[in-house]
Amino acid sequence: MDSVLRRTKNTQLDKICYKAPVFINFDNKSLNHVGVQQPPCNGCGNCIGGCNVGAKNTVNMNYLADAKTRGAHIFTKTKVEIIRKSPVDGKWQVVYRRLTSDDQSDPRHQMVLADIVIVAAGTLGSTEILLRSKEKGALSISREIGRGFSANGDQLGVSYDNSCKANAVGVKSDYDSKDISNPPGPTVTGVIDLRKVPGQMSYKTGVIMSDGTPAVGHVTPYKALLQLISVYGSDGDDSDKWEQLGMTLKKVSVENTLPLLGSAHCDSNGEIYLDQNGVEIKWKGNDAKNAKRLNQVFKIAAKALGGKALEKPLLSDKLVPWFNGRNTITLNPTGGCCMGNTCDEGVVNHKGQVFSGSGRDVHKGLYVMDSSVVPSSLGTQPSLTVCGIAERAMRLLSQDCNWGKQNYEFVKDPSTIQWNVATKASMIFTEDLVGYYNDSKDGKR
To answer: Percent of the chain scored above 90 by pLDDT?
Structure first.
């Protein structure tokens, strides 16, 4: 990144190119702020494949750890089927299946009862749960469920064959520093933010771009994709391109190639729907204008690096068949359970309360708090926005329930907490009936 900053100095990128603020731990401490052992980043660059070091500040390193410290019970390898109201006591029933070691669903249903249920399974997960609950007749919700899906205007670009070394390929997480003295660092290290250009771009037209680093396990397909893009994504005759591809594949230098990740604004008019395998997406968006703006930025960046911008790598008409006709990519999807003033406008209100399907009426005790409630594209990485929406909704929930003033200080030592909540064991029996019902006397109906 330092090399990029040096080359963009005194260019049109100088004022808008900066190091990215990333959610990664770089402090060499034994415990982090919530008392979890968290080593510092070693710069291996495999973030996009999952941090094997433990330095990435995912929710298990903060929110979930603090919740567990305060008495929460966390269950993994579960798949929620539906959410419904109990006809007996009015409590919420969260019906789920346990996943086996090979990620197959146990056919037996299990259930959790609660007065308050907060759905936070992400854009696709939360929408799927509510869609299935509606389809099974377990929950009445807005007809807007599944709508407003956004790809966040995300687009992939490449600055290919640069004159300087990009150092943008991951290495093994347990690499020996004696062998690799200059690891690539986190997946994203820098930002080019055209929203900061006064008078040139508005909120809706502004774009933002960052660098990327493929994980070490993706190097071979990454090299192959680079050649497909450079050969088949270019203009000209298709003759002999397979031969050209074969001859050049072994000569590809990924060391001088920099992946580029762009975000802009899209129409947010995709729709998530159920099929036999889970959820699918109908995409109606037309992001041509935003794609053009991002491609212009990709070209400027590539020129500054002395390389060639491979435009619209997955949008080329010649490459679309390779990707089954799906030429939209997103790292940060939003929508599906969009926020609105009434059930005619959205699935939840500003507090995250799920509309019951009539005006502003809501299901008491049922909330959605994640990226699925965001009603439009954000044009940038959405983590901070989603966290802000969720924390605001939690504060309002606390006020509505009269829980009193909340202590937002993290607890590093669980032994300092005194629990006065009495707990008791309970058991619920459920039964599934499988088969066909026939009420005719002759059994023919």
So the answer is: 34
